[in-house]
Amino acid sequence: MPLYEYFCQRCQTRFDALRPMSSADAPILCPRCGSGETRRLISLFSAIGSEGVIAGAGVSCASCAATSCAGCGSRK
């Protein structure tokens, strides 16, 4: 079962939930405040192998606003 990331608009909390793909966008209650005012977020991922980052989303230095990238170890 995939792990999805959600955001509660009422209490500004991010939380994860293991849910079937068919339920990914179904309503879910916030575990902190119980609100149903939640939305699914686009989660980023990366896989690091012996040659550095081998797969990922959002780990490219071109799209990174940080001065140091923990994903690839490069510096701008």
Apparent shape: elongated
| Helix-strand category | mainly beta
Radius of gyration: 16 Å
Enumerate how many helices there are, as a single number.
Answer: 0
Number of strands: 5
The whole-number mean of residue pLDDT values reads 79
The main β sheet shows up as: 3 strands, antiparallel
- The N- to C-terminal Cα distance equals 37 Å
Outline the low-pLDDT stretches: none
The helix content, as a percent range, equals under 10%
Account of the 3D structure:
By secondary structure, the chain is mainly beta. It has a domain at 3-40. The chain is built from no helices and 5 strands. It has strands spanning 3-8, 14-18, 38-40, 46-49, 52-56. The chain has a 3-stranded antiparallel sheet with strand order 2-1-3, with no helix packed on it. A hairpin with a 2-residue loop joins strand 4 (46-49) and strand 5. The N and C termini lie far apart (37 Å). 5% of the residues are buried. The mean pLDDT is 79.
Tags for this entry?
elongated; mainly beta; 5 strands
Secondary structure elements and pairings:
Elements: E1 3-8, E2 14-18, E3 38-40, E4 46-49, E5 52-56
Antiparallel strand pairs: 1-2, 1-3, 4-5
Summed up, what is this model?
It is built from no helices and 5 strands.
